[in-house]
Amino acid sequence: MESNQTYPTVTGPLSPSETAMLEVLVPGYGFISRILMSYLNIDINAYIQLVVAMAVFAASFRYIYNQASARFSQYFVSRAEIRLDDEIFNYLMYWISRQSHMKQTNRFVAGIKSNGYWSDDEESDAGDENEWDKLDDDGKLASFDECWEKVLSRDKYKTLRFTPAQGCHYFWYRNRPLMLERQRQEGSARWVLNNERLYLSCFGRDPTILKMLLAEAQQAYVERDGNLTVIYRGQRPCATSPYDWYRGMARLPRPLSTVILDQEQKQSFIDDIKEYLHPRTRRWYSNRGIPYRRGYLFHGPPGTGKTSLCFAAAGLLGLKLYLLNLNSTALDEDGLASLFAVLPRRCIVLLEDIDAAGITNTRGKTIVSTPEPTIDEIIPGEADGEADATVVPDASAKGGVTLSGLLNVIDGVAASEGRILVMTTNHADKLDPALLRPGRVDMTINFGYTSEADIKEMFISIYNTTKNDIRRAKRPRTASNGSAKSSAKSITGERRNSEDSQVGDKEDPLQDALQSHQSRISRLADEFAAIVPSGELTAAEIQGYLLNHKDIPEVAIQGAPEWMQSTLEKKRAREEKEKFS
């Protein structure tokens, strides 16, 4: 018996069966092998074993690497997931886009379109104000042509905005290496919104550094607004998306003093809100089993300042303002309930023109679709629109919100608590009594036509000098007696930007001239109020006329009789037409 045996080595061509098997596994194998043998004299069969071994090794290495990486990430890496439908997504994107390492990355998304973390309200009018406030050496304001040329040149180019591209981005934060991963979520119902998620990771099982970063991002995002009033709007971006609150804009708060309303009524409204928002009030309600909710109804003719008061109250108290339009059939009762369910505890919800939304004396009626007004058309509410909505008698019609559904959301068992509800209407008599009962409407404020005191207040507010008007001026230019043109050059009258904006610094060398100007404006206000009758015109009508002569109060007084007569005739003609129609 032989002790040594030799085994044949396969170096020649493969058998037909083996070649056929390779042809099945690797389509085109036979053709490729013949080409290599004919032109390069390379027998690919001699390397089959090596190729298979390398393939097996690569697959095994990939599997082992993925498993090891998954286990390492599970036990030695902390990870935070941020979803698009949460506001913290905007916080992090706003923060990360302003970091120095983001400016150095070579993979980014460039755009000019506004969204949740890049909004047009960031591009405030501060740049425009700086252009107009530039002074020459002689103390004169820069000319219109000079400023306008610079403004137009700047407005031609929209701001470029850069955010991290999809994939992994590494950076250092407080001497710790972190990784930001941006992923698109495929197969989502919100694919049209570019649905995506962010993943923030760090080494170690302690996620404190990630929480610190997110807290800093939130602080930076919130501080961007400063004392601005943030406005949200209830809507859905597309037909497949649910209704949610989306940030609309942030605007400078409107001083309460600029709202033309009886001072006692204004103060009573503000005092009532402050009492409601006091921490002890919530505890008082809870101890007695009373739902912690507060509702207000503002009613009166269009243009009397209903929306303006709501906006001013939000700015005064630092509350966010949530606007909701009930005129769309796309908003059903489930969507309305979900919107109210996610409201923060302390906020103001504004329902504009509630009577126009089909909330009439019949609960079963359903509102029909009407065009939704934009936020720019509503805030700051210089004029409350008057509209008449058509209702559909069939309560089972598709879409829309019934009065019963609205009542359940406002004061039902599952209704949210802590929010302030403000409803405005031009016709309070059209509302169902069930909507007006205590617990749903706790205070009603009637907005009427302007009184003599209101007219004087508006005139002084528009033509009086504020600190912002002269903060850059070197010296005032006093007006000559009876010269309207000189008056226009000396004082630029604008709406007050803050309640303490009246100039009253006793140490200011301009004080004497300013006091003289204020006395003159007060005297002219008396003349204007004597011409315009009280109880006939709205604040919006008077303000619109005065703005046409915002720099020349004398001219406004001279043209007041003709304007007043024309306005009253038009109003009477419109009333006669409505009476016979």
UniProtKB/TrEMBL annotation:
Residues of the BCS1 N-terminal domain: 50-259
Topology class, membrane: Single-pass membrane protein
Residue numbers spanned by region Disordered: 471-518
Signal peptide: none
Alphabetic keyword roster: ATP-binding, Hydrolase, Membrane, Mitochondrion, Mitochondrion inner membrane, Nucleotide-binding, Transmembrane, Transmembrane helix
Membrane-spanning residues: 44-65
Superkingdom of this protein's organism: Eukaryota
Annotated GO MF terms: ATP binding; ATP hydrolysis activity
Skewed-composition ranges (Basic and acidic residues): 492-509
Annotated InterPro entries: AAA+_ATPase (IPR003593), AAA_lid_BCS1 (IPR057495), ATPase_AAA_core (IPR003959), ATPase_AAA_CS (IPR003960), BCS1_N (IPR014851), Mitochondrial_chaperone_BCS1 (IPR050747), P-loop_NTPase (IPR027417)
Pfam families named in the record: AAA, AAA_lid_BCS1, BCS1_N
Residue span(s) of domain AAA+ ATPase: 292-451
Subcellular location per the Swiss-Prot or TrEMBL entry: Mitochondrion inner membrane
Entry's Gene Ontology cellular component terms: mitochondrial inner membrane
Record family assignment: Belongs to the AAA ATPase family. BCS1 subfamily.
Protein name: AAA+ ATPase domain-containing protein
Native species: Penicillium arizonense
UniProt lineage: Eukaryota, Fungi, Dikarya, Ascomycota, Pezizomycotina
